[in-house]
Every structure is written in structure tokens, then in C-alpha cells.
What we know:
seven-stranded mixed beta sheet, five-stranded parallel beta sheet, 15 helices, alpha/beta
Amino acid sequence: MMKRERYLSRIRGFYHSDLIKVITGIRRSGKSVLMTQIMEELLEQGIEKTQIIYLNFEDYDYSFIRTGADLHEYIKGKIITSEKYYLFFDEIQTIPDFERVVNSIRVKFDTSIFITGSNGRLLSGEMATYLSGRTVSFRMYPFSFAESCEIRGLAKEDITDEVLIDYMIWGGLPQRFQMQNEEQTKTFLRDVFDTIFLRDVVQRAGIKDIDLFNRLLEYLVCNPSQVFSVSSVSDYFLSVNRKVSRETIYNYLEYITASLIVERASRYDIRGKRVLTKMDKYYLTDMGLGRIRNSGFKLEMGALLENVVYNELLIRGMDVYAGKTRNGEVDFVSIQDQKKEYYQVAYYLYDQKVIDREFGAFHDIRDNYPKYVISFDKMDFSRDGIIHKNAISFLLEEE
Length: 399
């Protein structure tokens, strides 16, 4: 079991805090394993096993807990001393009214509470009402490229372009690296996707027009890294003889992003230093789910690499936007601690025309923040203060 040190290091300072630790992430990204690792570290610190209570609400052993009231009574029966208790609630969004229960437990007992969920809106709605200012949130992702190499036991000299291409196609969900062949990988990914689709979207959101929803999801999966506009989607549906309102498209987009299958990258006006509200980009949270969902999958390597770089920047804890310049675009503006970095991504810098296009994307950016071009090329094309990085070298960098 590989230790997810990147996430543990961010959470450790809150182990004993009364703030509620909220960990969200797509299904099978490793949230349950992370909880197990936190519990192991608490035991190493001297916390007694009796002080730790773990409930996985997708485990049939806890099927008797169906309501918030059931959960409240169960926890009250488990806390029998005045010592501090450490409560771990895995996939808690399955329990109705869980927000009020968590808040009640927090107020009534000396506890440190950790919760996970596979929904990006876990901190919205009722939870925001009852727990406002009392939570600290952490977003968990599938294995980064570096983690995928570590789990496979690859030495640095064994990490080839083919290894990266495999990651770009099949993604980084931890369990997929236990599969023995491509057919097993496909079966696993299909099962994950179907679970997300049925439990986290169709059932929870109450989708009625499943065919329409499927087509919108297919559009996003088939067009990763592309600028999204409602009009282009409307045209797409008209091409398949469907007329869809903008409101329906926006609502379905919210359901899809809440399920964490895709991430929305808002556009950032670099000159005006403001986030724009139209023409977002959408990226797959895990490349493998895109591969399994799109039967006509085209290996547009530049778009896939752009998606991987986007995910990597998020994994590193950055806020990432699609950049808009005065006369064009730059793939990403990443912001962390008020410091910016700019990124252009290309599969290969094939010729001078491609080189000029990728490096020229920074022409209208007049500040002195770092500017990078990422590609598969081994040769260093850095120029005019713009740094060129090989994709593998970039993805293996230490934070």
C-alpha cells in the first residue's frame, strides 16, 4: 500500500483539530486508503484503538444505518469515555441529513472528525449552512504520473515515452495498476464509470432524460481540452436531431462536474487580471474513464498531454485557469500564494511553425512570472526567457 504522502502532509496539522476534515475525490481515487493511513499514524502517535471509529457507508456491515438519526444513535453508543474520539465517515453523502448529525456530534463530544465523499458539492447546500467556518477541505486525485511510476516500481531510467503514453490513455486510478492485462483494465474502468454514472449522477440528481445526459457526457469526453460553449453543444445536439435548452445543458454540466468525472477550468483574462464567466474548458479527472467511455476514442496526443498537465498542476495544489491574452490564449495560468506561472503544452515541437506558435502564445504577457512550454521533445528549445521542459521531466519534478 503506497503512502500518499502529498495528501498526508497537508492533513497532518489538523489530525487533532476540532475542524471537520473533508476529503473529496472521484470514486476509487484512494480516499478510503488515505483514511486507513491516517488511522495508522494516529495509532503510532499513541491514540488507543478504542478511540478510533471508522464507518464506510458503502459497506453492507453498516446497512442498518439508513438515516441521520440512526447514525447519531450509533455514535452516541460508541463514545463511552471523556477521551477524545477520532471519527472517520467514508462516503457519508449516502446518509440523509448527515450534515446536522456531524454538527451535533462536533458540538456534543470531544472529537476529531474526518469525512470523505465522491461529490464535488459535499461542502455546498446544507453542509455549508450547518458547518460554515468549521471545516477544512482537501481534494484527492488519482495517482499522479510520478506516483504511477512508483507503484509500478520503475527506476528513473525505465520511465520512457511509452510509459507516459500508457498513463495518458489509461489514467491513474490506483486499482488499475493491479490489473494483469488490457481487458481487465477495461472491465475495471467500465465498472468505476458505471458506478459514478448511476450512483453519483443519475440517482442522486434524479436525471430523467438519461439519453440526453449520456450524449452531453459523451461530448465532453470526446472533446477534452477544448473550449466549451453552449452554442457549440446546441449545434452538436441539433446534428443528432435533438433540441436542448441552455438551462438544461447548464444543469447537466453541474451534475457532471459534481460527480468529479470532469473538471472545469474557467478562463482568466491575463491583461484584466480577472476570471471570466464564459467559454470554459473541461478536462477529464482521469484519462482512463475517458478512454473507456469513448468507443471512438481518438489519440489526439496533444490534447491528452494538456489534460495530464492540467491535472498535475491541480495535484500540486494550484488554482488553474485557461488563460486569455489580448490577441489569443495560453493553455494555463496557475496561481498559488499569489504567484503565477504560465504554461503552453504541445505533443511535439515538430517544426519552426509549431515552435513559433507555442512560444509566441506568451507574446502579450508582459509580467515577469515564469513561462513554460511542455512537450515530449528531449532537446531544449528554451528561448527569450521562456523555459522549455520535457513532459516526463516536468511530471517527475519534486514539489
